[in-house]
Amino acid sequence: MALAGPPGGAGWTWRPVARDALLARAFHSCTELRGRFYLVGGLPAGGATEPSGDTVVFDPAGGQAVRLGARGGPRRSHHDAAPVGGRWLCVVGGWDGSRRVATVAALDTERGAWEAWSAAPGSRPPAGLSSHTCTRVSDRELRVAGREGGTRTQRRYGSVYTLRLDPGARTYSYKEEGCHTASRSGHSAALLQTPGPRPGHQLLLFGGCNSAEPEVAGHWSHGKLGEEPPAAPRLREQLARLVSTGQGSRQGPRGLRHHSCSVVGPFAVLFGGETLTRARDTICNDLYIYDTRRSPPSWFHFPCADQGLKRVGHRTCLWNDQLYLVGGFGEDGRTPSPQVCILDLFI
Fold first, then answer.
1. Which of 292, 316, 330 is nearest to 29 (CA)?
2. Which Gene3D superfamilies does the UniProt record give (predicted)?
3. CB count, 10 Å around CB of 49?
4. What φ, ψ does residue 239 adopt, rounded to 5°?
5. Which carries the bigger pLDDT value, residue 347 or residue 60?
6. Most buried one in 47, 209, 268, 346, CB count within 10 A?
7. What's the half-sphere exposure (Cβ side, CA atoms, 13 Å) at 221?
């Protein structure tokens, strides 16, 4: 297990805490709900075009993974998912093996059953979504960002949608927002506070195209947002100490996609992915921290020498003041990792 980071004693690594073949997949979703991680779909190996239709539940406290017996789960990869009402896991869009879809499937975690929700009257769904992002802005509202289209037609810009979910009626409704973004695929999204005496929030998109610049896909003034991110005071303090050892930059990673991104207080923590800037050795193992505590924000880059930590199509999940890494293809871009790791910071 190699230690990564700048000289002088500070560094980081991903420490394995569990291993199970059920977890070996990439381009899946991994969502924390009631202290469990729900892994849905994904690709079982590099080169596969038929996504998995299974759901695996991982208990981070006990380190155990079990396959959910519920039938009718969606076959999806390159999708996203979000918890709703503390009970439902809503899977949005993705690749179903033959086309990009924009439908919503919901797992009722209390009953352990999948439900096919229907589009409400007046819903204006995208033509199809894959490698997009879904970000909770309230308990029943998601902001969806990404390039839409079928397999033959793609818009040359990114679309932003509000997706409203109604668990009581088992319906969903899309509304296209007026703003467009750069055409992005395989990007990440982070809902972060804006600095100042009356902080609002903005939704930032990172990567998924050649640009290194984050892009705003939504803005909410002070008190307008109904979403409280999970508190992680110890990890937040560790990240603050780690960035204090680094050299900040205004420039973020250029051409990064299919990386992971988790918000920890004022920080967005990005890891891995593949870079569009190289023809060979494209899969990455770098840690990037976007620090919004001051304006303008700064990027901090912490490279890694351990080739075994290269990941693409993986996910990170924040739970119990720790950041977990789940799944993804490794250095060869084909072999899925069966490991669950925790981010360890050494300051």
1. 316
2. Kelch-type beta propeller
3. 9
4. -65, -40
5. 60
6. 268
7. 0
Dmax (CA) of the chain: 60
Q: How many CA atoms lie within 13 A of 71 on its CB side?
A: 0
Instruction: Tell me how far apart the alpha carbons of residues 15 and 234 are, in angstroms, rounded to a whole number.
Output: 17
Side-chain-facing half-sphere of 169: CA atoms under 13 Å:
11
15 Cα distance to chain centroid: 20
Q: What's the pLDDT tens digit per position in 263-291? A: 999 999 999 999 989 988 899 999 999 99
- 158 Cβ neighbours under 8 A, 6+ residues apart: 145, 146, 147, 180, 181, 182, 183, 184, 205, 217
Q: For residue range 90-144, list pLDDT tens digits in order.
A: 999 999 999 999 999 999 999 999 998 999 999 999 989 999 999 999 999 999 9
First to last CA, the chain: 17
Q: Distance between CA atoms of 186 and 137, rounded to whole angstroms?
A: 20
pLDDT reading at 47 higher than 80: yes
**Phi, psi at residue 182, to the nearest 5°?**
-60, 155
- Given this model, what pLDDT does residue 7 score? 47
How far is Cα 30 from Cα 81, in angstroms, rounded to an integer? 8
pLDDT digits (tens, 9 = 90+) for 1-17: 555 654 445 799 999 99
